[in-house]
Amino acid sequence: MNNPKLGFVNKNRRELGMLGLLIVLVIITSWGTRESGVQAVFESKFLSSDNLKNISREIGIYGIFSIGVGIVIITAGIDLSVGSLMALLGVVFLYFVTPTETRPDSFLARIIPEIPWIAAIFLTLLIGTAVGLFQGLLVGKLKLQAFIVTLCGLLSYRGLARFSADDTSINISDSSQNLEFLRFLGEGSLADVLTNGNGSGLLHSIPMSFIYLICFAIFFGIILHKSVFGRYIFASGRNELATKYSGINTNIVIAFAYVIAGFCTAFAAIPFCIYTGSVQPATHGAFFELYAIAAAVLGGCSLRGGEGSILGILIGTAILIVLRNMVNLFGYPTPLSDAITGGVIFVGVLLDQHGASSIKKIFKKSH
Amino acid sequence: MNNPKLGFVNKNRRELGMLGLLIVLVIITSWGTRESGVQAVFESKFLSSDNLKNISREIGIYGIFSIGVGIVIITAGIDLSVGSLMALLGVVFLYFVTPTETRPDSFLARIIPEIPWIAAIFLTLLIGTAVGLFQGLLVGKLKLQAFIVTLCGLLSYRGLARFSADDTSINISDSSQNLEFLRFLGEGSLADVLTNGNGSGLLHSIPMSFIYLICFAIFFGIILHKSVFGRYIFASGRNELATKYSGINTNIVIAFAYVIAGFCTAFAAIPFCIYTGSVQPATHGAFFELYAIAAAVLGGCSLRGGEGSILGILIGTAILIVLRNMVNLFGYPTPLSDAITGGVIFVGVLLDQHGASSIKKIFKKSH
Amino acid sequence: MRGINKTFPGVKALTSVDFDIAKGEVVALIGENGAGKSTLMNILGGVHQPDSGTIQVNGENVSIKSVSHADALGIGFVHQELNILDNLDVGANVFLGREPRRMGLIQKQIIEDKTNPFLEMLGLDISPNTPVSKLSIGQQQLVEIAKALSKEAKIIIMDEPTSSLTISETDKLLKVISDLKNEGISIIYISHRLGEVSTCADRVVALRDGSNAGTLTKNEINHDNMVSLMVGRELERTSNESGSNIDISKGFEAKDLISSNYPNCKISFKVFSGEILGMAGLVGAGRSEIAQTIFGVDPDLGGTIYIDGNPIKRGSAKASIKAGIYLAPEDRKRTGLITEFDIIKNVSLASLKNYSNRIGLIDSESEETTASNQINKLNIKTPSADTPVINLSGGNQQKVVLGKWLSMNPKLIIFDEPTRGIDVGAKAEIYKLMRKLADNGVAILMISSDMEEVLGISDRIAVMHEGKITGILDREKFSEENIMNLAVGRSS
Amino acid sequence: GKNTNNGDDNSASSNKVKLAFVTNATADFWSYGKAGAEKAASEHDDIEIEFKMGDGTAAKQREICDALLVRGFKGIAISPPNPTGQQQMINDWANKASIITVDSDAPKSDRLFYLGTNNVEAGRQAGELLKEALPNGGKVMAFVGVGDQANAVERYQGLKEAVAGTNIEILDLRTDEANIGKARRNAEDTLTKYPDLAGMVGLWAYNAPACLKAVKDKGVAGKVKIIAFDEEVETLKAIDTGEIHGTVVQQPYEFGYQAIKALRSIIIDGKTPNDLEIPETKQKFIATKMIRKGEGADYLKKCQEWKKGG
Ligand SMILES: Nc1ncnc2c1ncn2[C@@H]1O[C@H](COP(=O)(O)OP(=O)(O)OP(=O)(O)O)[C@@H](O)[C@H]1O
Ligand SMILES: Nc1ncnc2c1ncn2[C@@H]1O[C@H](COP(=O)(O)OP(=O)(O)OP(=O)(O)O)[C@@H](O)[C@H]1O
Ligand SMILES: [Mg+2]
Ligand SMILES: [Mg+2]
User: Fold this and answer.
1) Residues B44-97: pLDDT tens digits?
2) How many angstroms away from the CA of A35 is the closest CA of chain B?
3) A2 found inside a domain
4) Does residue A303 sit at the C interface (CB-CB below 8 Å)?
């Protein structure tokens, strides 16, 4: 029982299982995308630097907001508003960097001033964080159910985004500022940023959004797993009342989780709208909340709260993105991608809950 | 304290509050859609027989599947798969009634035979119920989390629907059968059905889907509020373990709630695909799960389980539909409809939780 | 029941246990926490299946497959944890699973008619239509007993039925048990309150570490015999010496405190440093409420509290903890502990700031050291410091709650039902700890519904009735009668 | 009359004839249509219009149109997202008001006539552009939002017809549910899967800019030829730089303008489709144009003028 190897496996069972799944997916995809007979696995299209760049850019963007959603889930909450908030923030951000004349006619378009893009980034982050705070106070302080608060958010923010863009898309190309560097920061690679667009080589294969994700993961990993506040997050998610009885203001802890989610969403919204080049408010970021929840759950966050890890969320995100990449690279019909995603989440969760003992047994026997 | 009036208000507080909200909405919309100065409120466009017919048809369709979702919510579960299941069942139903030649090339299209529409209805109901049973067993028996199981359903069923329709829409007009009577049953009025399309007058303003809803509401109202099984639903939703200790097989009770949801969804899917005339699998029924959950929650079902009523679900559905109708009749931009819906749910829930005491106080004082 | 074995993942809960009961007999089942009492009864009640062993009912071999099967065999069960549904009314709870029905529809009237006599029998003056959410915990417990009675079972298992009842309710229940016995119904009675056991039991069966530890016949039943069977050794009886270190110039004082359930009552009292103030009263007297109000988890509706004469900022648990006021709440699992967390994290939760550096990162080493210290000091029985507390017995869980506070700097510790559901051995240890704390100058407020405990441990006893303190007894006035008089509102 | 988009039915203008334009879904394309419709409305005092955007589903369109009819709208120009399936509902509406279809047609329904692009022809034009761009042929992938919408089907068909018999091989059609993020991923993954890809055709407006981003990112801009549809700002700019070979533009402004004009003539002036010189086929096509290198900037300017109100 006190086998340290077993202890490690036990504690990180979910993460290890999902890491295994990810590795299997990577192997299958690599194998399947070799040029037939000619190439070795590591020369497959999947492992080509272009493809790795593409998927790591997406993992970067999806990972950032999934971390926010994951932290909310650890407090036993949920955030359904991510996708809609991304649309709203996308509209707001692009309004900030485009001249008033090019905007459609709406209230928001009239009141938002055109400002330099650096200021626009800060203001967008601020607005996202404020929205998170608003939701956080409703859930943490007023004790409204997270599902309902964020469901209202899902409906309202998208409605607002569509209304304030008059249901047309807002294009970054309308901007009169020189946004080249912003573009590097958003969808470029590390080489682009360091050498102003001229770099190549390995650094060129590392998209900035992936770098941001690494920073987010390290920062929030430390916060969540090493800091006092992180401990409070887990405690509030497990048993809010008992945490309160230990003198901790759980209202604030819970509210703060939503603030983090708002901030992460806002942070991801900027590279994502640069990635798409424009924001079509009716569809921009649609279903992102579901992907984020799926990533978190796959990665071991329990919807009952108090369980989960940043590493797990990253692995969950990676699985989702690799799955979709696989469907595309194999040339399967696009609709299958969602069906396969659904199936994999299902099998993952099923195995985790009912095949768990088997993994343990393997380690027990070997001892 | 033992004031019977107060008891009634207490027990049905949520329903009464929401009924009040519905009435307010109806009055506002009627008032706002009068022909200026000329007409009395009851001659407003909102209260015109055409409009009442339109909205009651929609309330009928949405109400039916919301009842299913509401019952699942009362067992402390959730069903996110409704919209996708409607798309899948729509495809299946239309395959049943159209000749094989007109269908796109897919596996499902090849194996589904063309059969008379009455048989198609029964088979579609059967398939929907079977899907519900599948989800029910996973949640009730295998104790997987409802959120995850039905999230996978949401992704998979839509993926399957799109895949099996080759991402093209399936049209009811491709059928070689005489579907006139089916059309009456689906989107016609009571008069249409009784007189084979010739009726008029009051009966002509009562759409069949509304009649179905009434039947469903009465039937499931009795099941839920008067029958032993209904009692078990409420008991399992509040405290599964305690219910189990009373010798009740909660696994089956919970599984059965999903069976009901599957059946209701299938039942609503048929008039809905007749209403739209075709099924475009990528978008058919999108977000219906959210509307159903919103209706149930507005109507007093708690996501924590063990609370809710059929009457409440009906009122919740009616509020959502009237809201959208209001936005349309007032000629507001369509995107606002969702934002307003979000806002109203939010205010409703907020008032319910934090303004509740005020309602009670009024009755206490009057005594 | 013969040779019952039961293993849970990682635990051998029962090792070839034998148990029998005759018609019309009251058998008390006793044992320390985790001895396997509930598990044995869960097997009889169809909740768990034994790994091996046989069960005979009326001489016939049966294997009890489910709760409803047990029902059919005439076995009723009042579980240790409350199993009442607060979204249903009393009648619905009593008849849950056995609703009189016609065509699947519930016949409400019949339920009402059939429920009433059982409520009367237990002295519950409520209508079957009352929503359970309106009842006190004690009343809910009685409803659950009514439910077991209504099954007209031949054997009724009561697993710690009195743990949330007070003295008068307990007396009533004991009377009901003797009535049932006279009707030929057999009763299995599990309790840690040995006084009750001596009163009602015809025979005592003791379990120790999942095996039979012995049986006492009617005339062998006394406190010492039971304890030695359960614990396997003699226990010194709880000392009754008065606190030697009482300093009436220091300590805690509450002035004009208002709690939300009794907004019209103002409460004032003092707990001196070095003193244990017992607080007695019937269920619902408002004792826990006062504790929660002092601790700051209930809203501050008025009044002032002082430590050593200095007024304390109120309104949050954080402020109270900072002032050295701690609460060991009555519901350990819900409010006292995060049961899925390990001992280390539970002990450090309230004082995490002490184990973290300036930027808020936790120093896990000093956290672990503190936890190990507390484990040693409080003699917490656990495989390791990183064992989730859910795996500990009730007594050890209570010690973890204590460890959390003792790792800090207590001025006043409020113990709300400190020994609820805890076995004698652990009880004695906790009493000793409380006395040691008091001797070190801590003021202690002990809310308890266990008469023996209140009389045995306290230096003074405050008695509450419907939100008011009806009297404070000094040591020389200590008696059951005086307390009962005050508790029902009569002045002594 | 100026249009009253806030739907203030109770104003003094209630004796005006109410006309509406209901789109299939939200798209930039329609902002020109809206400008055209509003221009038409501003030329007459006896009408007022409302411009409504659908969400791509027949259900939403039905909800919108039902409400318009309740409010007494006399004429509606609609772009049905699913024309075949919507025949029945179009017939129902046609019983109560004058209905014309715009942009996508339901030929078997009781609509008065159709006004819009000949999408097969537009597809052929895209094919012509493709042939110019790839004289030696090569592998080409097509991209679209929803594969079964009439314009997508027809454009794809026209495209394939035009390149039939050449060395150009159309690989497949990738769909993205009108989600730009997905559109870009589809483009990226296609480039990964087919390293020898020679061209990309974006059948919906946002597809070509999404392809362009993927191509630029891979550093093969200009090498992989892109053919676009419609007049996205980015598309027009990229045409002049040569990164996109060309685009096929429709005239949505004309859709809006002519649809409202025609509805007014029919309802108020009692004209018939014949009087309006609608061909016997009941389909009036508004020609599509090809924009090639050097013409982008001019066209962009024209677009901006349209948006500002003609
Ligand atoms: N469902 C379960 N899963 C795993 N272990 C269990 C389970 N139920 C009980 N145990 C373990 O079995 C042992 C016996 O527990 P049981 O509840 O029967 O004790 P008890 O005598 O009733 O104690 P108490 O006086 O505290 O109620 C304990 O070690 C307990 O941790
Ligand atoms: N969570 C609750 N919800 C509603 N009423 C409650 C709750 N907790 C306590 N009460 C009620 O408040 C009153 C005072 O309860 P309190 O718990 O303070 O009494 P107590 O003397 O500590 O009793 P106990 O011995 O049960 O702890 C009782 O009438 C009780 O029913
Ligand atoms: Mg027990
Ligand atoms: Mg208490």
Assistant:
1) 888 888 889 889 999 999 999 999 999 999 999 999 999 999 999 999 999 999
2) 27
3) no
4) no
In this predicted structure, the answer to whether residue B131 has a pLDDT above a threshold of 90 is: yes
Question: What superfamily in CATH does domain C2-231 come from?
Answer: P-loop containing nucleotide triphosphate hydrolases (3.40.50.300)
d(CA A40, CA D236) in angstroms, rounded, equals 42
Q: Tell me if C492 CB under 6 Å of ligand 1.
A: no
Q: Does residue C449 line the site of ligand 2, with CB under 6 A?
A: yes
How many C-beta atoms lie closer than 10 Å to residue C10's C-beta?
Answer: 8
Task: Enumerate the domain spans of chain C.
Answer: 2-231, 247-487
d(CA C103, CA C80): 35
**Does residue A323 fall inside a structural domain?**
no
- Correct CATH for C247-487 of 3.40.50.2020, 3.40.50.300, 3.40.50.620, 2.40.180.10: 3.40.50.300
Q: What is the torsion angle, in degrees rounded to the nearest 10, for the CA atoms of residue D51, residue D56, residue D62 and residue D66?
A: -20
Contacts of A1 in chain C (CB under 8 A): 10, 383
Q: Which of D67, D68, D148 sits opposite B280 (nearest CB)?
A: D148
Report yes or no on A45 lying in a domain: no
Ligand 2 binding pocket includes C463 (Cβ within 6 Å): no
Q: State in Å, rounded, how far the first CA of chain A is from the last one.
A: 10
**Chain C: nearest CA to B246, how far in angstroms?**
6
pLDDT at D43: 93
Containing structural domain, residue A268: 68-286
Residue by residue, DSSP assigns C383-395 as S-TTSBGGGS-HH
For residue C99, list chain B residues with Cβ-Cβ distance below 8 A. 228, 231
Q: Which residues pair with C55 in a beta bridge?
A: C62
Whether residues A283 and D178 touch (CB distance < 8 A) is answered with yes
For residue A99, give how far its alpha carbon lies from the nearest alpha carbon of chain B (Å).
Answer: 24
Same topology, domains C2-231 and C247-487? Answer is yes
**Residue A198 above 80 pLDDT?**
no
Kindly provide the ipTM of the predicted complex, given to two decimals.
0.86
Q: Are A73 and A293 in contact (CB under 8 A)?
A: yes
Which stretches in chain C have pLDDT values below 50? none
Ligand 1 close to Cβ of residue C31 (< 6 A): yes
Tell me if A361 is assigned to some domain.
Answer: no
Helix (H) or strand (E) holding B93: helix B82-97
Q: What whole-number distance in Å separates Cα of residue A218 and Cα of residue A210?
A: 12
For residue A295, what are the CA distances in angstroms to A68, A256, A336, A353, D182? 11, 21, 18, 17, 18
* Interchain CB contact of D296 with A (< 8 Å): no
Touching check for A54 and chain C: CB below 8 Å? Answer: no
Number of domains in chain A: 1
What is the rounded CA–CA span in Å between residue D232 and residue C52?
Answer: 76
Q: Specify the amino acid at residue D27.
A: A
- CB–CB of B275 and D84 under 8 A? no
Read off the DSSP letter of residue C361. B
> Per residue in A84-99, pLDDT tens?
999 999 999 999 999 9
Q: What is the 3-state secondary structure (H, E, C) of chain D?
A: CCCCCCCCCCCHHHHCEEEEEECCCCCCHHHHHHHHHHHHHHCCCCEEEEEECCCCCHHHHHHHHHHHHHCCCCEEEECCCCCCCCHHHHHHHHHHCEEEEECCCCCCCCCCCEEECCHHHHHHHHHHHHHHHCCCCEEEEEEECCCCCHHHHHHHHHHHHHHCCCCEEEEEEEECCCCHHHHHHHHHHHHHHCCCEEEEEECCCCHHHHHHHHHHHHCCECCEEEEEECCCHHHHHHHHHCCCCEEEECCHHHHHHHHHHHHHHHHCCCCCCCCCCCCCCCEEECCCEEEECCCHHHHHHHHHHHHCCC
Contacts of B279 in chain D (CB under 8 A): 85
